[in-house]
Amino acid sequence: MKHLRAVNKKARRIDDYVSAAKGDVVALQNPPAPPQPRPHIPMGCSLSFSPGWEVDSAGGTAGLCQPVERDIYDCYVTCFWPAQVPDHLNNSADWANKCAAATKDWRNLDLVFP
Amino acid sequence: MIAPTNRSLAVAAQNLHRSGRVYRLGEFHAFEAARRRFLYIVPAGAIFEVDEAAGLLIDRLVQGEAEYDALIEELIARGVLGADAEELVEEMCHARVIVTGDTPPEPLQDPPEVFPLQTLVLNLTNHCNLSCQYCYEYGQDKVATPEGKPKFMDLETARASVDFLLEQSAGRRAIHITFFGGETLMNFPLLKSVVAYATGRAAEQGRSIDFSLTTNATLLTPAIIQFLSDNHIGVTVSMDGPKELHDKLRVFSNGRGSYDIIEPKVRALIQNHRTRPITARVTLTKGVTDVVRIFRHLKDDLGFHEIGFAPVTASPDRLYAINEKGMDGVLDQFHELANEWLEYALRGEMHGFSNVSDTVAELAQGVNKSHPCGAAMGLMGVGPSGDIAPCHRFVDSDTHALGNLATGVDRDKQRDFLSRGHINAKYDCHSCWARPLCAGGCHHEAFVRYGDTGHPNLHYCDWIRDWTDTCLRIYGTISAQNPAFLEKFAERKAA
Description:
The complex is a heterodimer of chains A (114) and B (495). Chain A has 114 residues and is mainly α.
């Protein structure tokens, strides 16, 4: 280094390190990639029961949502639909109230219009 | 210690695009020596001398943070060449003298989980033939609970200790045993057997082992001195100075001072033990604070090679504790001896004032401690009962025991001790520039003062900072005027 004179062992290590970094070929090199962040997996949306991903509210397949409408992790990893299940923790707490047995009552699970 | 990481490399690369970034001063302690400017970089423990341009940059940022382009312009206006100004900022950034607002602080690395032992302190006995009032083993502030435990270590326990050291120090080529007490020489026969046994066992493994002991010198005989010299055993004598100072507290149980007994023995020791430097260790107490006079007596009259001083460890209300005013006087005298030390160093000579030598040695390495000392990591103590303690000062204390030779180290207790003592746990220390060396100070002192081994020793902060600054200025002066002298410290121990 030009303006700093290292006078102890630790300072010399910093000096060596800076000199080495300076002497390196920098052009056309990528800096080391930062560690990849781990994927964020939201919990509690459709993990227990995902009704309707085979059929629409009329029991057919015509009204199913489109891939462009996917909006959460579950929509495009396990499936590509938008939120299969409304948020029944905060906004639609009573959404499944009429659905005691999903295999029998699934038609009572209605759409939600926020 | 902080090592450059790939991540900081990436940060450095990004910093090439500096325009718009705002710069401020990093964490350092600035000092002057030999009319030159130096910086002690706190997160690293590094020492740099700075040139005029770097000084300009620092002076500018002392007044407040600045944006990159404006900063470069200001530097150019003050006479720094354009390309040079940019290089200057880059260099100062690399060394963390200056930082940008978004530079994340790098956390201090933890010591390795498995830390091989280097030194074992054997308390050969907890008996002593003196009754020094301030003794941390027997005095009013003692932590030991020796009731019902053996008073003398037996051969079996001593051998088990040596085996323990050899096993726990795997990978180290040189290891060390320190004999301690009580009065070490009250169990001299055992000391002799341990030296023979340990030397043999270490040689079998192709490793080297060395020994040292601390003694009050009352029991030294020509034969013992011969043995110590023949076996290269380092000796530290606990001694508080000339007769009237020494005899104030270093007394036999009948109150008679010990100076007259030890004086001829110490002279014989220094004269006949030629294989290792002989050190005196002085405990400063109220009324025993005449540092310069004590030093002169021990160095010039008796001939010790090195003399180290430590204020007594005591609750503040003890009669022998030194109050703040007393400590100021001590520090003034330390400065006087420190100046002498520097004069010697500039002539290439060792002066013998350990308090400077030890600090300069640590500054030369650039230590940056996670813990104040190696206790419970590279160093442990063993008592006569075979109980393992973080260091000799905690030997025989049930509260602080880290296990027993028979059952091994209790890793949970060790972890607890070390996490308490870690600098990261000492909030008060986080804004202190002297923390790379001090790391909060002695675990035992903290326990005596505050009842917690992990409490920072706040009662001597100002003192530590003053002393560290003094030693930094000594270091800077030598680096400017006699840098070759600092090579003597290249291999000195560093925590």
